[in-house]
Amino acid sequence: MQSEGIRWTVDVAGVPVAVAAADERYDETARGRLGAAPNSAAPELDVVVGPDAPVPPDHLQRREVEGYLGWSEDDRAWISDGEMVVAIAPDRVHVGGSIADHLEEDRFDDLLQFGVAAAVARPNRMMLHGAVISRGDDAALLVGGSGAGKSTLAGAALVGGWDLLGDDLCVYRPDDGTVEAVVRTPYVPDEIADRHGLEGVREPGSRNRVRLPVEVLAVGRRRLIGVVSVGHGVDGAILHGSSGDLSVFDDALPVPPFPYVLRRHLKAASDFLGLPAVQLEHARDIERRVPRAIERLDEARAAQTPQ
Prior knowledge:
With 307 residues, the protein is of the alpha+beta class.
């Protein structure tokens, strides 16, 4: 049994999660993914992170999805990325593997996200991958593949007077139609921060990002009125559509779509797929990107707001 030397309880978008980390490096990785907002309620989920990887049962058949291997049995599952493994149970997530360098840390971080997202899922809630912005009580979820421009659009929203609730993970509750973001440090591209006066700390390395203070985030639940699917275009075009497009759901799902995962998300996903959606394409011209994005966001809100 690995050491669980550092313990704390975090508020993951309204879900109290108890975290046990083997040492400071694993603790830092967990906080980077789950945030550091405290929660004093009794934990719904225990998360254990450390070097010792759980071992999937030998008798189970494995599946491969999106480069990951997965096993499942009843209400338990295992997802592996090489020597790293996350074991998922209804009330416990165990992620194990080495994080000796940044590449390993990123892979470990992905498995942590997968495990927590799958364990949090219930018929009346699901975790989603995307930025959340709001005007008043109305929120929109910004989704897109890697490099699509979610962080650019989140930065444009801040510049344009929208509230930013979070830029990475959130929990959607279809029973009341609300969304709440995980409170963790947000990042925006340096071109957005530099050109539009968003103050923060430049991220070291080649990712060209600026870390904004967590205080820029608004907190709490908002009514989710629609989804904005983000991409790159020529002139900031906006096309109307529906969340019923499975590509939108695929971008929003924060864990590979193994059968075990899809079963846990089925009920809440059916409500999510009924939300209105629009496709927004960023202007390629950097000078026009933010002002055009702000205009398009306002158009998207007008299109999605119930009359």
